[in-house]
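Please discuss these two lines.
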Amino acid sequence: MEQLIATIEKGKPFFNAIARNKYLKAIRDGFISVIPIIIFSSIFILVDAVPNVWGFYWPAEIDAILMKAYNYSMGILALGAAATTAKHFCDAQNRDMPKNNQINFLSVMIASVIGFLLLSSDAINVEVDSTSYSGFANGFLGSKGLLTAFISAFVVGIVYKFFVSRNITIKLPDQVPPNISQTFKDLIPFSVSISIFWLFDLIFRSAFGFCFAQGVIQVFQPLFSAADSYVGLAIIYGAMSLFWFVGVHGPSIVEPAISAALVANMSANLTAYQAGEQATHVLSLSSQYFVVCLGGTGATLVICFMFAFLAKSKEMKAIGRASMIPTLFNVNEPFLFGAPMVLNPIFFVPFVFAPICNIWALKIFVDLIGMDGFLYTLPWTVPGPVGIIMGLGFQPLAFVFLAAVLAIDFLVYYPFFKVYDREKCEEEAAMLEEELAAKAAAKGDAMTAAFQGKINASSVADDDSKTQAAAADSNDLAKLNGRRVLVLCQGGGTSGLLANALAKAAKEHGIDLETGADAYGNHVDMMKDFDLVILAPQAASYFDDLKADCDRMGIACCVTRGKQYIDLTRDGEASLRFVAEQLNL
């Protein structure tokens, strides 16, 4: 097993390179930026459709009001993604550009939105009561248009970089205000970008008779279907757990490739359910949040509670009880690095295969038992069991499925848990013997020292040295007054643990320290307001890019290791000293 893990670890640089790929990162970060749209719209769908389970249906006018909020948010999801993906791709492009010649991300976002509309929407002209109205068809502005949104964002970003990096722009005299100069500087790349989309749209529609977005869906539909099979699901989620096991954030590599399918399948499920048909898609955003990642990547909810309440090892019990609340809310990094699960040979098999077993169980319930797939999207921090019940629309089979998944995870993890628990108990017994021997030796030394009359003198010296060290340490921490620290992780959950620990410790020491926490990818616009940026271990593959951003702005940055990060979140004073060291105070 250790040889297998060593072999996998050799590929870690390659996996890190994939995770740092600017196209995949832009898709991931752009997709994350529009998640609030998905969650917001799902609130109205929940209110509108869940009562149907108990035979209650809203009057038509109330239903129309609720669905309007859904259609005007989820219905333009891809339009938003075209803008957010373009923005994040622009940030990546700017990393390679001179500081005094950056691409204007606002212009890029607008160009991407216009280009996306050209590729995905037909003009509509209708006449009502002798009055003519015109507008855009929205059939591909929602989840169906996500792939086209990503493409439009990349085309615009590439065009802008080509022109701006070569200074092929309209230059105005220095006396002209910067905002006006920027407008003219953007004019050439903006015009070329839109012209490319316009001409391509004319050619494509003439050749095929439909819009490009529809063509993309037709091309990728077989891949979406293959991904929703038993083999496809195993490959996708086995790979995600495998990457995480060797310390590379799996979703960063896997999720960009399936993000369009995750959302499109959710929409297809809801449409089928509302039409009185079975919702048959298994691969979806909510199934990933609450089934595959029940308690976080590796489906660690059950094993964390096993640590907390079934372990005989004191260390395992302590780790489990300290980590079970975050893990319940799908923030499992404290457990992954504290147990540890990452790179622990004993847990390799269940960590990779428990998520696969979970998603296969969902497919069995959908394909063979007739349960509807996930219909509603909830925030990923909703406790997994609650997310399963609500996401499946409170259907009776959802409760049976939840019990089945918990039982499956218990059975998958239990044999490996027992092996690890036995090993840790043996280690603790050996440590206890060593500790007792050390205490006995220390007691003997103390008696000898007392006989020689040296104990009082050494105690005074020790007390003095401790007092001096405490004073020096206090002075160093006092230098943190007025400093600002930003903690970044992959999804914005783990970073809050360290930021809160720093804030609490600073308050206890009377230190004016400002802390912030967010997801990597959202940092570019906010990091200029901070003195230090700390990168959590699961986002370590992005450190080179972060350092480039920080060096450009004159900001200190650092990356933490797994166990080190967890220790810092649990020891506020140590976290303050860590910050002081990074700032060379």
